[in-house]
Every structure is written in C-alpha cells, then in structure tokens.
Amino acid sequence: MKQDSTRNTAYTVDCEDYVHVVKFNPFDSGDACSLIAYGGNNYVVVGTCRFQEEDAEVEGMQYKTLRTFHHGIRVDAIAWSPETRLDALPPQIRFCTAASDRKLRLFTSDLQDKNEFKTFDGHSDYINDLVFAPKEGQEVASVSDDHTCRVWDLEGNEKAHFVLRSPGMSVCWHPEEAFKLMVAEKNGTIRFYDLITQQAILSLECEQTPLMSADWCLKNTLKIGAVAGSDWLIWDITCSSYPQDKRPVHVDRARLFRWSQVSENLFATTGYPGKTTTQLLVHHLGHPQPILTGTAAVGSGLTWHRTLPLCAVGGDHKIFFWVTEM
To answer: Which regions does the record annotate with the repeat WD (predicted)?
Structure first.
C-alpha cells in the first residue's frame, strides 16, 4: 500500500472494478484489523485493513481481501451486521446490499464453504440506504424512492412499513436508541419513528431541498447532521426542530454527510461527482473552515473508521483514505 500525496490521500487501495460504495464495519468484529466492504458493478469485496496510526509495526497501511462475493448487478449500498465476527470459529461475515434492481440481498459467509444469500423483494423504486438493527442484528431497515421505509426480518419478511411524503434518502439506527429509527426524506424532513408503536415521534426540518443525506451522531444521540442543497446542517434535537448550525460547503451540491465514529465534533461531506473529481471535506465544529479538503477521481461513497479519525471514499478502480486530526 503506497502513501499517495498527489491528491493528499494518506493511502489508496487498488480495486478490480469501479467502486460505487465503500463501508467500514461500524461494529467490533473481535479482531485487531478493521473490516471494510466495497461494491462495484458486479461484486462485493470484503477485506481487512490495518493502519500505522493504530499499529506502529504497520508501514503505512496493510490491506487484505478476505472474499469476493458475486453480486451480478451494480451495488448501491452496503450495511454491516453486528453479528459479523472474525474471532468466532468458524468466523461469520454478514452484510446486506441494496442493488439497482430494487432488491435487498443478505449475504452470510464463514469465509470457507458456507456462502448463502437471500433476496428481499418489496420496494418498487430505487433503494437509497439500509441499516441493520445495531444490537442483535435481527432486522434490516431500508428507504427508497418509492416513498417508504421498510423494516425486514432476516428471512425477508416485512415487519414494519412507514409511508413517507417524498423519497427516503437515509435511514439510521442508533445503538443507544434501539427502538427508534431516523428517516431522512428528500423534501427536507427528518423523522424519528418509534418501532414499538410504529408512530412518528419527532421531526426536524431543513427548510431547504433537496436533502440528500443525513446521519445520527454515534457519540451524541442528540446530534443530527445532514446535507441539503449545497449546505451542511446540524441539529441539537433538544433545542429546536430547525438547524442549530448550517454552512454552505460544496459549490454545486452536497451529496453525503457522515459523522465520525470517534468524535461528536468531526464529520465529513462530499460534493456531487463532477466531470473528473469529487470533493471530500472534513469539518470540525470548532473550526470555521474545513480542516481537510480532498479530491477523488469520480468518487462515490463515504465511510469512517470505527476507532480512528480516518475516512474513505470509493472511486475509479480505487479506494482513497484520508487521515485527519481529532
């Protein structure tokens, strides 16, 4: 793995295919290495990463592919299951994908002979995001352009169905709020649903559109972030249904918002892929300007490492990694 200074990425990994989506496992899998999954036009690749920032014996970065899963269609989103364990015998890898045929696919593998997948049918339009129940991992929630949020069991049965007023762009399930689901809609509304009563219990407003992406802060359950138009917006849900802070960031339009896993003040946004490059910005709430600006050739996807201030974006036959300060 080489250090790449040209686009100020800390590291790059070469990939067989165009990378549409990349996702670090946000859960502890019982191993010193971090699991990462990325999806292209036909495959999902699962690998492990180790960085010099966490292990002095590593020179730069070590990456190893564990398995390539044939997917047969473009991968649009990936969610990891908390049941994924590398320290079990045999190990278990479990993740779910959303694809351009409007289906979810649940993959389970022991990295040897057992490789299963199930298809979940029901959405009638493009699926924008999905997430596993963060504690037990026995359910998956997904949101779609079909104006629904659906919750599925691992057999693909629909357990809940929320009708939205516009396309569902993001869905989040917080480990400390296991009975609530956060759903962000393209019309600028973010709603929280109680999964027991299946009722909406709280809503936040962007007052601008289109909302493209939203995230629930891991380190502070009261903080929600999003991008809408060319701005990032942040709410403190105890204060108001309107943003506490917002700032224009991407010249044309912002595409993704992701909180870091290690700090409630650190987050990243990406712009829309331009003709050649996608802009990544890392922001710290204590700083008026972005603390890091990166570019990736036709980048897509955005994900943060579970324990380091390090994020990754997919691109043309590459994954780009950036390291920032806390």
So the answer is: 120-162
DSSP per residue, 280-294: EEEEETT-SS-SEEE
Residue 317 in any domain: the answer is no
In angstroms, how far is CA 146 from the centroid of its own chain?
A: 20
Q: What is the pLDDT of residue 6?
A: 35
SS3 call for 267: strand
pLDDT, tens digit, for every residue of 152-209?
Answer: 999 999 999 999 999 999 999 999 999 999 999 999 999 999 999 999 999 999 999 9
Count of domains observed in the chain: 1
The span from the first CA to the last CA of the chain, in angstroms, equals 24
- Beta bridge partner(s), residue 69: 44
The whole domain housing 60 covers 12-106
pLDDT tens-digit readout, 127-140: 999 999 999 999 99
Structural domain contains residue 51: yes
Q: Which residue from 191, 284, 187, 202 is spatially nearest to 238, judged by alpha carbons?
A: 202
> Is 62 part of a structural domain of the chain?
yes
Write the CA distances from 67 to 106, 273, 283, 322, integer angstroms: 15, 29, 34, 24
Q: Using alpha carbons only, give the angle 145, 71, 141 rounded to the nearest 5 degrees.
A: 40
